[in-house]
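HUMAN:
Just now I want nothing more than another pair of eyes on a protein record. I would be glad if you read both lines and explained how they fit together. I have put the entry right below:
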Amino acid sequence: MQQAIDHWKAKGLDLSPLLKAPDVAESVPRYCVQKQDHGIADVLDNQLIELCKPALDKREKVTLDLPIRNVNRTVGTMLSSRISKQYGAEGLPDDMISIKFNGSAGQSFGAFLARGVTLTLEGESNDYIGKGLSGGKIVVFPPKNAIYSPEDTILVGNTSLYGATQGEAYFYGMAGERFAVRNSGVRAVVEGTGDHGCEYMTGGVVVVLGRTGRNFAAGMSGGIAFVLDELGKFPARCNTGMVELEKVAAADDKKLLHEMITSHFMVTGSRNAKRILDSWEVVLPKFVKVMPVDYKRVLEERKKKAATTK
């Protein structure tokens, strides 16, 4: 700490009211005198940690099938913390822990999920699903007896994948507003989004197989998005202040897009994904590539530099 008393910004600044002792009796505590119950003794993750001990202690594969309710929040976070403490950022091998849930997940389902954990949800999720996703995989699809159309129904809430850094996500349904805000490395496929999709995104790849809301890609400085624009309305819904809209022409882009949609179909059974794959040559021209201008320039400069050093 530096006092900064002589700094010009501190001139005339009086913080003494913040440090003034309250005028109360000596018997009134002015500091922590009893422990606070944070209510985490009975959270679902404690059960998950116990059930996943073979994977945590012996690196043996664990497969679970459990119910979930919307009172179960931040499911997978404490489990991921245990993995990080034992194995660091490397985590566990992919899919070493596979947990299938049935029901309605509470807020922040799969938040900060570590590598090696796959959470599959048959049902729907509240806001902040996959917040800070850190290498894990999240799959959400509707119940098998659902009477609604997943392609036109919001299945995961607002601000999904907020600040996610690594991993994969597949949502067979629409997402609410601000999908993949500040995503910096996750690859995700979703059937549609609300307003402000990919806002402030800096990395990763997002594929939208349907309509988006307004202000898509606002402040998007990195990463790539592919949006299926069969109605031709997407350009009016996209904020082009920092991005360009291109056709999916490069062989690498076509390969990446096909692989991600195929993975989406394999894990969710999406009818829309199957339709696209079955009519690939016809549907492909209807995809729009959203490319940040500065990000594109940096990638091109890296390619030139790599070519000159060979």
